[in-house]
Design goal:
There is one protein chain. By secondary structure, the chain is mostly helical. It has helices spanning about 20-35, 40-45, 45-55, 60-65, 70-95, 100-115, 120-135, 145-165, 205-225, 230-240, 245-260, 265-280, 285-310, 340-345, and strands at about 170-175, 195. About 60% of the residues lie in helices and about 0% in strands. Helix 5 (about 70-95) packs parallel to helix 9 (about 205-225). It is extended, with a radius of gyration of 33 Å. Mean pLDDT is about 80; it is low at about 1-5, about 95-100 and about 140-145.
Length: about 350
């Protein structure tokens, strides 16, 4: 066992060679030590990590965490509604009705259909589709908020949802001197963390539903912000810590898997698994069924294309198992290199300067 204060470190991660750069190695060792002490903290998704700062920076949140469950639920619902208003205001301004010419509409439909027919050209076609859609001009209506303000509204909505859920499920630091004199924070180490979870509540049912709803709304806002990793982590948190039977969390996680342009076959397979589970929980959900059928069709077309490309690769010729010589050379009885028969057998052709 390691002695007191000792930490297991893999020295190979600091690079090879001698200690010619002691500052670099010292920084690397300190970073590794900090990471070792923060394993639990680093396992938390951003929406849960941020609850530690909301409790420190917002005195009303800190005070309410000590209040009764009824008071916390009431304020959490208010914060959630504030987040909903920000989320809806962004959608109403960002998703205005558009006017499309018939020719442009037909071209968009043609490209969308081609995307599912030609798997190999999927990424290129998506870029072409985005270029065509960019040509569709919205109606000239007054815009209440700019694009930057829309993003800020979404980010603020996420904070409201985090605060709402953070009144019921949160993490806090119990180290008394974890702030520096300038207000910055010292390293957050696992031994000083206290996690307050839903299971600690006397009547967790209503709180569980509210927290789940806030996390799902964070996933939706993250999708609009194109933060697909945060979107997936929010769904993971619902399924892993709050409600493992949430069909909506499974559906949105499938969307998060497929949203990035870097999504690969493994992401699609995982998305299909999520959607199959969601369909069992919510068999009447049309969105789940539609996306599931689309991904299955896409996978089937790709597999058919691979079979047509590689299916006959090993049937285009016969496999030669054994080659027999029709006129085998007789092995000489005397291995004299000056003997022409030996030279012929060994395929030796003496040069002009060769003398026996």
């Amino acid at each position: 066992n390691d002695g007191p204060g000792l930490i297991k470190l893999d020295m190979k991660q600091f690079g090879s060679g001698t200690m010619e750069d002691p500052l670099r190695h010292a920084v690397a060792m300190r970073t590794a030590q900090d990471q070792y002490k923060m394993q639990m903290w680093n396992s938390f998704p951003p929406l849960f990590q941020n609850t530690i700062f909301h409790g420190e920076q917002d005195l009303s949140i800190a005070a309410l965490r000590k209040a009764s469950l009824a008071e916390r639920l009431a304020r959490a619902k208010e914060l959630k509604e504030e987040g909903n208003s920000l989320l809806k205001s962004r959608s109403s301004n960002a998703e205005k009705p558009v006017e499309e010419s018939p020719e442009l509409s037909q071209e968009i439909e043609r490209v969308e259909a081609a995307i599912w027919e030609k798997e190999r050209e999927l990424k290129e076609l998506r870029q072409q589709l985005a270029s065509l859609k960019a040509q569709v001009k919205p109606k000239q209506v007054p815009q209440e908020i700019s694009e930057d303000s829309e993003r800020q509204a979404l980010e603020e909505a996420v904070r409201r949802y985090e605060k709402a859920a953070g009144l019921l499920r949160y993490v806090e630091c119990i180290r008394p001197d974890w702030k520096n004199d300038d207000g910055s924070y010292k390293g957050i180490e696992d031994e000083w963390l206290r996690v307050v979870d839903l299971k600690d509540l006397e009547e967790p049912a209503e709180a569980k539903e509210l927290v789940s709803s806030c996390y799902l709304n964070i996933a939706l806002a993250s999708q609009k912000l194109e933060k697909f990793d945060d979107m997936k982590k929010a769904c993971d948190e619902v399924l892993g810590k709050v409600n493992p039977s949430s069909a909506k969390a499974l559906y949105r996680r499938a969307c998060a898997r497929m949203a990035p342009a870097s999504a690969v076959d493994a992401d699609r397979d995982a998305a299909i698994q999520d959607l199959v589970a969601a369909a069992k929980l919510a068999p009447q959900d049309k969105e789940v069924r539609s996306l599931l059928n689309r991904l299955r069709d896409e996978k089937k077309k790709q597999e058919l294309e691979k079979r047509s490309t590689f299916g006959g690769l090993f049937q285009r010729g016969e496999v030669v198992k054994e080659v027999k010589e029709t006129n085998p050379k007789a092995e000489p009885s005397n291995w004299d290199l000056n003997d022409p028969k030996v030279q012929e057998f060994l395929d030796i052709r003496p040069g002009p300067g060769y003398r026996s």
